[in-house]
Write a structure and sequence with these properties.
The complex is a heterodimer of chains A (312) and B (193).
Chain A: H1 6-10, H2 12-39, H3 47-57, H4 68-85, H5 102-122, H6 127-158, H7 163-168, H8 175-178, H9 180-193, H10 217-242, H11 253-272, H12 280-307
Chain B: H1 7-27, H2 33-53, H3 57-81, H4 97-117, H5 131-140, H6 144-165, H7 170-174
Helix pairs in contact in B: 1-2, 2-3
Classes of the chains: A mainly alpha (312), B mainly alpha (193).
Chain lengths: 312, 193
C-alpha cells in the first residue's frame, strides 16, 4: 500500500512550499560547489547568490522580432519543470505526491525540459541561440533512450515504479551494487539534461553561449536556476534510486539522504568539471551503439536477478 | 459511470477538454512552425491532464512523455528535411483544405456515432487498486500481439520515412563495392568507424 505522501502529512500548501525551498537550496548548493571547484577558492561559494541578486535587478535586453510568447514560456518552464521533477523525489522519507508511475513522471519532466530548452533557444530569433537549441535536441537523442533504460532498471529491481518502493527495496543492498551502469548513465544524463559540464555544447563558448547567449536579467536567472535545481533534484533522485535513499546507521534517515545527495553533487561536479566539452555530433553514435546495448544488458542482468529472487 | 468521479475531476476533465480542442484549433491558426508544434504539444498535455483527472496516472504521464519527445523529434526532422529548415518563415499547417475538411468531418461523425451508439457497460466494475499494474499485465499478456504489431509497424514507418527522405544510401557511404573501410559520412560518428 502507498505510504503517506508529504502533501498528506504536512498539508498541500506547506508541502509544496517545502519542496520549492528544498529545490532552491539544492540549486544554490550545486552552483556553490560548482563555483568552488571552478575557481578553486572557497570564497567563490557566495558568487551564485551575488549574481542572482544582480540578475534580478538587471534590465532585460531583447532582440529583433523575437517569438516572445514561446521564449518566455521556455524560460519559465525550465525552473518549473525542475521543481516538478522534485515532486517524486523523497524528502524526509516521503515524496510530495506518490503514484504508481513516479519514475515515468520524473522522465516526463525531463522530456518536457528537453522541449522547453529548445524553446529558449528558438525564442530570441538569433542564430547562436537557435544553433544551441538544435544542439541540445541532437544531444538529447543520444541519451534519452539510455536514460529511460536506466530508470526502468531501478523500477525493475524494486518491482514498482513508485520512488518510495524503490528506496524500501534497497534495505539490504544498495541498487548501485547490481546496477552500476544504470547509476552512471542516470547521473550523466542528468548533467546532459542540464547542458552542464561535458554536455555543455548547447551553451558553449564556440557559439557565444548558445541557448543562453540572448538571455538577460530575470530570464537568465530562471534558466540558470532551473539548470542548477534540476542537477540537484537529479542528484537527490540518484541517491534515492541507487544509493539506498535514507538508509544508514546512527544518523537519522533524512540526514543520510542529504549526505548522499551532497556526495553525488560533489562527485558530479568534481568529475564533470575535469572533462572537456563533448561535441554533440560525436555523442549520438556513442549513445546508440554503446550506451543502449550496455543499459539493455544491465536491465537483462537485473531481470535475471529478479527472477532468481535476488532482491526479494 | 460519472457518479464515480468527484465534482473536481469532472470540472477538470471539462476544462482540459476545451483547452485541448482550443490548442488543437490553434495549430491551424498560427503562422509559425514552432508555434504550431507547441500548440499541438499543449493539446496533448491537456489530454494527459484529462487522464490524470481520471486517475490513470501511468497513461497520463506516458502520454505527456511520448508526445513531448515526438514534438522534439519533429523539430529535428524539420531541420533535416524541410525546405525552410529553421522554420523561421511564416507558414501554415493547412494543406488541401477541402479534402482535409471532408476527412475531418467524416471522422468526427464516425466517432460521435460510435460514442453514442456503443453499448457502454452500465454496471460499475470494480476499480483496480493499481491501474499501472493492470495495464502492464494487459500489455504483456492478452494484448501483447497487438502491441508487437503496432510497435513493428511504427518502427517500419519511421525507417521507411527516413529512407525515402534521405538522398544518401549505402553505396554513397561505402562505395560501389560496399568495401570501403570507413564510411564516407558528412558528419562522422563518435566511434571512428
Amino acid at each position: 500500500m502507498p505510504e503517506q505522501t508529504l502533501a498528506e502529512a504536512w498539508g498541500l500548501v506547506p508541502a509544496v512550499l517545502g519542496i520549492v525551498a528544498v529545490g532552491l537550496v539544492l540549486g544554490v548548493v550545486v552552483t556553490a560547489v560548482d563555483r568552488v571547484v571552478v575557481f578553486g577558492a572557497p570564497g567563490a561559494a557566495v558568487e551564485p547568490i551575488r549574481s542572482s541578486a544582480r540578475l534580478l535587478v538587471e534590465q532585460r535586453r531583447t532582440t529583433l522580432a523575437p517569438d516572445r510568447l514561446l521564449w518566455r514560456t521556455g524560460c519559465v518552464a525550465v525552473p518549473t519543470l525542475a521543481l516538478l521533477s522534485l515532486a517524486v523525489v523523497p524528502v524526509a522519507g516521503r515524496t510530495l505526491w506518490s503514484t504508481s508511475a513516479d519514475l515515468v513522471w520524473f522522465n516526463a519532466m525531463e522530456a518536457l525540459l528537453w522541449a522547453a530548452v529548445w524553446l529558449v533557444g528558438w525564442g530570441p530569433n538569433a542564430v547562436h541561440a537557435l544553433t544551441g537549441g538544435y544542439r541540445f535536441l541532437a544531444q538529447g537523442l543520444a541519451y534519452e533512450l539510455p536514460l529511460m533504460f536506466a530508470l526502468i532498471t531501478a523500477g525493475l529491481g524494486a518491482g514498482s515504479l513508485r520512488t518510495t518502493d524503490v528506496v524500501a527495496a534497497q534495505e539490504s543492498l544498495w541498487f548501485v551494487v547490481t546496477m552500476p551502469v544504470a547509476f552512471v548513465v542516470f547521473v550523466a544524463s542528468a548533467a546532459a539534461f542540464a547542458f552542464w559540464g561535458p554536455f555543455a555544447a548547447p551553451a558553449a563558448a564556440d557559439i557565444a553561449g548558445g541557448i543562453t547567449s540572448e538571455l538577460s536579467g530575470v530570464d537568465r536567472l530562471l534558466v540558470e536556476a532551473g539548470r542548477a535545481v534540476f542537477l540537484g533534484a537529479s542528484a537527490a533522485m540518484a541517491a534515492a534510486l541507487f544509493l539506498g535513499g535514507d538508509s544508514g546507521p546512527w544518523l537519522p534517515g533524512p540526514l543520510w539522504h542529504l549526505l548522499k545527495t551532497l556526495a553525488v553533487v560533489a562527485a558530479l561536479v568534481w568529475v564533470g568539471r575535469r572533462m572537456p566539452v563533448l561535441r554533440p555530433d560525436r555523442t549520438v553514435e556513442v549513445g546508440w551503439m554503446v550506451l543502449v546495448p550496455l543499459t539493455l544488458l544491465q536491465a537483462l542482468v537485473v531481470a535475471v536477478l529478479v527472477l532468481n529472487g535476488f532482491y526479494a | 459511470m460519472l457518479s464515480d468521479l468527484s465534482g473536481w475531476a469532472i470540472t477538470a476533465v471539462a476544462v482540459l477538454g476545451v483547452l485541448s480542442v482550443a490548442a488543437g484549433v490553434a495549430v491551424f491558426v498560427v503562422d509559425s512552425m514552432a508555434r504550431a508544434t507547441f500548440a499541438l504539444l499543449a493539446s496533448f498535455l491537456a489530454v494527459a491532464g484529462v487522464l490524470l483527472a481520471l486517475d490513470l496516472v501511468y497513461l497520463a504521464v506516458v502520454t505527456a512523455l511520448m508526445m513531448t519527445i515526438e514534438m522534439a523529434i519533429m523539430a529535428v526532422f524539420m531541420i533535416m528535411f524541410m525546405m525552410n529548415p529553421a522554420g523561421l518563415m511564416p507558414m501554415t499547417m493547412v494543406h488541401n483544405a477541402k479534402g482535409s475538411a471532408a476527412v475531418g468531418a467524416g471522422v468526427f461523425v464516425l466517432l460521435a456515432v460510435g460514442i453514442w451508439t456503443i453499448d457502454w457497460p452500465t454496471t460499475n466494475p470494480v476499480r483496480p487498486d493499481d491501474s499501472t499494474r493492470q495495464l502492464g499485465e494487459a500489455i504483456m499478456g492478452s494484448h501483447m500481439l497487438v502491441m508487437l504489431v503496432i510497435g513493428i509497424g511504427l518502427f517500419t514507418t519511421i525507417l521507411a520515412g527516413t529512407v525515402l527522405a534521405t538522398s544518401r544510401g549505402r553505396y554513397d557511404r561505402l562505395g560501389p563495392g560496399l568495401d570501403a573501410e570507413h564510411p564516407d559520412d558528412p558528419v562522422p560518428g563518435g566511434l571512428r568507424r
